Structure formats: C-alpha cells, structure tokens
Amino acid sequence: MIEIFIRWCRKRGLFVGVVMLSLISALMLSFPFAFEVEAQNVPRSRQTSELRGVWLTNIDSDVLFARDRLSKALQKLKQLNFNTVYPTVWNWGYTLYPSKVAQRVFGRSLDPTPGLQGRDMLKEIVDGGHQQGLTVIPWFEFGFMAPADSDLAKRHPQWLTSRRNGTKIVKEGIHERVWLSPFRPDVQQFIQDLIVEIVRNYDIDGIQFDDHFGLPTELGYDPYTVALYRKEHRGQAPPNNFQDPEWVRWRADKITNYMKRVFKAIKNVKKDCLVSVAPNPQRFSYDFFLADWEKWERMGLVEELVMQIYRDDLQVFNSELERPEVKSAKRHIPVSVGILSGLKGRFVPTQQIETQVKNARDRNFAGVSFFFYETLWNMSKEKPEQRQTSFQKMFLTPISHPNLFKGWKP
C-alpha cells in the first residue's frame, strides 16, 4: 500500500505527497487501535495449521436434536472457517448415539430426548462434518459422573463412590450428581467398552476427555476403594483428610494407570485416533479432580491438549498461558486454548473473545476452541450478524486442524 502511495505522489508532485503522508501519519497516531483491530486476529502467515474448534453439547442447546439444524450448523461453521467440532457423546447418564454397551449395562441404548430418536446423531456429525472438511472429535463429557436419578446409578448402586461420611451426592448447580468409582474393575471395563465402541464403529478423528475422567477429591471412601488402599498400605485406612497429599497422589496415580489402559485400548483399534484432553489448568485438575494431565502428557498419553481457560480477568487468563507445564507440553503436542464464548446466564462480549484469541496467538498456541456452540452467536446480547462478522475476521481463510499424525510440528 505504501509503495502504491509513493508512486502516486511522484506523479503529482513532492509537496502534495508530503502533505498527504503527514495526514495519514497523524491519523494512524490518533487512532492506533483501529488499525490494530484489523490485524490483531490474523494468524501468522507461516502457520500451516490452527485449531478453530467448538464444543457441541446437549445442555442449553438444541443443535444436536434435529438433523436439519445440525447440518446447517456444520455448514455455517465451515463457512466461517472453523475446522473442528467436539460433539458430546456421553452426557446425563446416557449415550447420544445408539449403544449396545449402554443397552447391556443399564437397559438404555440412547438418550431418551425426543429429538434423538430414530437417528444416529454421531454418524450424522461424522459424515456431515467430513463433507464440510471438519475434524470430528467426540467428547466424552460426563466421564465417571452421572445424574443421581439416572438408570445407570439405579441399576448399579455398588458402582458409586462416596465421601468419608458415606454421602454420595455432589451438587453441580441445582443438579444432583453421583460418581462411579474409577478404581473398580467393573466400572473401568464399562467406561472402556463405551469408548472402544465409539472408536470402532465411527470414522472419528479422535476422542476427547476432560476433568470428569477423574474424580472429585472428596470422594473415594467407598468400601471397595478403602479395601484396596488397605491392601496396599499394610491394613492402614485412608487418611480422614481427603486432601492428604499421599492419599491424593495414590488416587491420582490409579486414574493415570487407567488412562494408560484406555489409551492402549484406543490405539489397538485405531492407531491414528487422536487422544485429546480438555482439562482445567493443572493445579485445579489435580487438586479438585485427581486428573494429573501433566503426568499424562509426559507419559505420551495426550496427543492434543485444549486447556479450558474460562476467565474474564485478562491478567489471570494470561498467567495460565504462561505456566511451566503448559510451555513444556507445547514442545511435544498441539496445545490450544479453550475460550468461553458464553453461558446461558453469562454473557461474554465479542471484544473479550477477540482479545483472548489474540493473546493465544501471540504466544504461539496451536489454536482455540470455544465453549459452546449456542453462545457463539445464537445465545448472546449482541446481534448474530455482529458475532459472525467477528469470527469471520478472526478466521479470514481456511486452515487445517493441527494433527500430530498429519505433519504438525512444535
């Protein structure tokens, strides 16, 4: 642009050129932000891949409950140069795809929501997503968690773990949850069978877990787990303090061992199926959910990390991006940032989203993913057109998903 301007000046005389150049310089100095906004979210030209993902869930969203609605959503995402979707497949105690494993274990092959009946939602996303050039990585959202009144909890009460005082209910907002014990062999086999069923029966690009693949730290005092701990500690009972470092480490290591087993089971079926993990920052995941993803990553059990940084405070957001365990992971695998685009009762403005995307790019993260689809533009105080225009500017041109098996380099 500057070269074109100089040639124009030469044709019209030096004086005119100097005057015009001075005016342009003054404008740029007066309104630097305007020029910065246009460029702030443009990915570096040397990039050959960038995660541009979004989670598709059945909570506060109906995108999964109609074939046409789902198809249009995938088309819109492709149009705006997104490249990855993470559809939930295990939520509220049910599978969102027809499951023989679920039918066998607790008598329900599919979530009973009317909009899912007579369909295979997951197959629709895999087929439709791939037609649009999208990477499809099913999200095992509930992990070891289930509603307290679910068929699964009622059919297998012995599978549930508890606090030291014997209580089992964990409140999540207004909802009452229970947790399956990740230390029981029968629970482990059930969860692994669900995962392998998905990997074997669908042409997926990966499968994703999060903190719910751990366990709230206050739990683990069920009879089976206590007996197992006693067996490995010369008859000694677990500490009364559920935050006791050794008790936390013992349970976290058991979950890590199970993660290793699941990883192997996935690879035995499909070697190029990415194992993706979308946890909270390490300290929270470990201290509150016994999910030691830093150790998982060091062991080679994580092939894509999408860290949930759902923070409004930019300073806190940035500090999480600078953590040593995050920097270490970036040297081995694609590490991206999970950004909150809003919740049903929590509006996130476009400007905050744009700034967080820019900060992730400035630090050379592999990309971003947004939670969740409905709040990208449908559930917002801002007009859908405004939100979509913002994403269009952030994602100017198509780019591929950063896949460890398809040439991604740190």
UniProtKB/TrEMBL annotation:
Residues in coiled coil: none
Domain Glycosyl hydrolase-like stretches: 50-351
Any one Gene Ontology molecular-function term assigned to this protein's record: hydrolase activity
Gene3D superfamilies, sorted: Glycosidases
Keywords: Hydrolase, Membrane, Signal, Transmembrane, Transmembrane helix
Annotated transmembrane regions: 12-35
Protein name according to UniProt: Glycoside hydrolase family 10 protein
Organism annotation: Cyanomargarita calcarea GSE-NOS-MK-12-04C
